[in-house]
Amino acid sequence: MIKFVNASFELKNYCYYSGLKFILIVFFFSELLLNSQSLYFKNYTAIDGLSSSEVYDITQDTQGYLWFATDRGLTRYDGSKFTRYTTTDGLPDNVVFNFFEQEDGTIWCTTRSHKIFYFKNAKEGFCKYAYNDLISNNISKRAILSNLAVSDDNHLLLAYQNFDGFLQVDAQGNILNYPYSFKSKEKRTNIYKAHKLAPDFIFEDNRDSYKNAALTLKWHLDSLKNNSSYTRTLKFPNHKLNIVSLGNSFSLIHSSGKKTNKVLSSYKKDAIAIMSGKYDEDTFWVGYQYGGVILRDFKGNFKNHFLKNESVTKLYKDHEGGIWIATLNAGVFYCKEPAILHKSFKSYPVSLTKNEEDELYLAFHNGEVIKKDKNQYKLLYKSLRSFPAYVKYDKEYKELYYGDFSKNWELDKNSKLKGYKYIYGISDDENSTKGFEKNSVRVAVNGEFKSINIPERIFDVSTKENAVLIGTLGGMYIYDNDKLQHLKNKSSYYTHRISDIDSKFDNIYVSTMGAGLVIEKKDTIFSINKKSGLLSDICTEVFVEDPYTIWLGTNRGLNRITLYKNNTYDIDKLSINEGLLCSEIFDIEIIDKNIFIASKEGLFKFPKSIFDHIKQQKKWLEIDHVTLGNKRLDFEDYIVIKCPDPDLKIAFKSISFKDEDGAEYRYKINENSEWNYTNNSSVDLPDLAFGNYLFKLQIKTEDGMWRESIQKSIIILAPFWKTWWFNLIIVGVVVLLVFLSFRFRVLTFDKKLAKIIYFAILNKLRYKEEELFVNIKSDGKIIKLVSNEIGYFKSSRNYVEIYTANKRYLIRKKLDDFYHDLPDLVEFTKVHRSYYVRLDKVAEIKGNKELSVFNTTIPVSKTYVDNLKRISA
């Protein structure tokens, strides 16, 4: 049952009213046969930087760059700029027809002049095939090369249109097989074979002369009528079959060897197929002359049709899942995300709803309401004053409400919205269909409706149990128990503008413009915002799919939030960078496994599984160059710098065709150091000391993870005067000079001084915990006395008295002779002609006349006053 809410002028005149009714009837029963949703393509031509708008082929090299073959040379694209290459850059011919990619990453190219060349990337340059002259001398100028392959033993295999057999040239330039021409194909069976050295290499062999083929296919001439004679082998390992295509004909080759020939039904009579190729594991494409490109499954069933008026030569899927389509007269077309379908209208949709049969309804800013019926769109309503429209389906009462934001309403007498005078909108909360005016909302009190005035402009309402939640320009209000109050005291989140409220699963989900998504549970209120991973804090719509999955629209794109029981969550993002044409989202609806989005640029549709596809996308990352000052350094596995330099710079490149905001990187130069984050494509590493470093670089992918890590060793060689061998030489020279000096100047005159120096050096080399001993003879016994226990010793005629903290020893010896027997004599000093003290045992120095050791006063004579400096030091 449909409830129409008319927002037309106030009707004061019956005749005028009758005229309006006639107009409305016309609108109700008119049907718009609009095109179905399609992919959004961006077009690049010679104006944008292509060598030419006539493009024959597309491929991607091992570094991630896209290459376009044109009639004016090659063009390379890195996601931001086009680089053109011609004969001046090493190409043998400016007309490049096709790319033939080999498993080792080498790309072979064919040209109009039959000169073949190959490359891996632009850095390594273009290499001309060594035996081009040999090919030119043995192949007719009118021959068009249709297939090329290189075997494991570097044999080159070439097949040509309108020629039987193939040309085979070995690695030494010997021709092992020649093709041959024929005059007519009338009433004959065409035989196609695959070479045993290269299973993907298909050639025509109508004489059946090559017996040792990998497979053999036969077509009657009638199946080739009005079709080109190119051949391609497309592998589908998941289905255990290959598809060999020949124009509009194709053959299924199963792993068992079983073969099925079919002819594709063309989209129009006499359609000429230009080329075909594999799209994914279940789909292949066929490009037509002035007929666009058609996708079919491996059984030949139609799946989609793009660029219907263009002559398509190639459809290529890049490493991010985007598709590129080459044409013969309009350059190339690029679609970021083929899973996202788009439909534009003369206005833009502001709200969506669906009924019990999963039929979609759209309300537009210009006052129109449209029903989507399969691939057609039926106009249900049009505002006479072009006020923005709304649409809402009430599941409980199975009623559809739509209208516009005009002032005067005509309502069915049984309508649940009866009683409103100036309806401003209808809640999209599934719990209830509740209308609201600009500054008031009606609630039921004791079976009667009561209008509650709100001091703010209302944007949405919802109900939870007996309470009414009201989202306004100034935040959230609640009406409960006949009382209206603002919820600012409950949470500061509720002071922001509220754009949408959903009450579901005993929780409240609030879309705010400034605080992100606010979730209120029984025990907590928390916000998921930009800091925690949202695209934006300006949120416009919340759609709660289940207790764990929330879809959130913002002014920067769509977020899918996966909630967990402990209030943690994961966030997936879909924005312009991932393929949306517009990031400003107004409404969200889910039908079956598909998401529908109302945005400023129209209606978008994509599967819920799109994020799984995005997470699998690869980002190409490489170090582009390294500079030292103004000089570029050559490097491969590691970077070597002869000495520290303050101007070391590492530039890198990420190949992305989606990311318009630029990539985010992080890097570090040691495994244990912290990550540094940057949006620049180069980093300066100034003032690195000499040594070994490991430069590690990562890029942030669409799922927020850091992946595609690359690393390079940086070796900064020390200057020769800081090398170990140079320092060793210097030390050796110094030691030699000291030795010679002592030998001839000191040791000759003062052997005792030499002994002191010797013991000082020896003691420094000992472990600190190792004890030093001196052997003495006291009381007729040989005693091993620990040196560091001695506090002082003094002379007593021909004897020496040795004092430790607890004992006295008497030995027969001269004072100075005992001093020189000590293993650590540098630890002692003479303070009187009769006294030596140990430096670290001196407890107190009393002026210049005496000191204290073990509570014993020891005199200091004037002769040895300077030795006190050693003690105080």
Folded structure, characterized:
The chain is mainly β and 873 residues long. Helices cover 9% and strands 47% of the residues. Among the domains are: 43-127, Thrombin, subunit H (Beta Barrel), CATH 2.40.10; 621-703, Sandwich (Immunoglobulin-like), CATH 2.60.40; 723-769; 771-873, OB fold (Dihydrolipoamide Acetyltransferase, E2P) (Beta Barrel). Strands 2-36-35-34-33 form a 5-stranded antiparallel β-sheet. The longest helix has 23 residues, at 724-746. It is flat, with a radius of gyration of 44 Å. Mean pLDDT is 82; it is low at 1-35, 221-227 and 408-414.
First and last CA, distance:
104 Å
Helix content: under 10%
CATH hierarchy: architecture of the domain at 771-873 = Beta Barrel
Q: What Rg, in angstroms, do the CA atoms define? A: 44 Å
- According to CATH, the homologous superfamily of the domain at 771-873 is LytTr DNA-binding domain
State the strand order across the main sheet: 2-36-35-34-33
Shape: flat
- Unreliable spans are 1-35, 221-227, 408-414
GO molecular function, one term: DNA binding
Organism: Tenacibaculum jejuense
Transmembrane segments: 14-34, 724-742
Keywords: Membrane, Transmembrane, Transmembrane helix
